[in-house]
From TrEMBL:
Highest taxon of source: Bacteria
Protein's name in the database: CopG-like ribbon-helix-helix domain-containing protein
Organism: Candidatus Kaiserbacteria bacterium RIFCSPHIGHO2_02_FULL_49_16
Length: 74
């Protein structure tokens, strides 16, 4: 059966492999699914880190704060 997902071959240490197997067993999912889910989670964290850095850089400049008010949204 063909799959639409891309395959990636990686090499990990024995200890990392054992940890991944234990996590997959704990969560009752296949090892490949566990690794894929972990990669997706870390990519989201990395995206948050980058966006936070961009926001911090923007706040360093001259910032003009606008008072939050119901009048503004009308």
């Amino acid at each position: 059966m063909a799959t639409t997902k891309q395959r990636i071959n990686i090499s990990v240490s024995d200890s990392t492999h054992e940890t991944l197997k234990r996590l997959a067993k704990r969560d009752q999912e296949p090892l490949a699914t566990k690794v894929s889910n972990l990669i997706e989670q870390i990519l989201e964290l990395e995206e948050d880190r980058v966006l936070s850095a961009i926001a911090d850089e923007r706040l360093k400049g001259k910032v003009r704060w606008i008072k939050d008010s119901d009048k503004i949204w009308k």
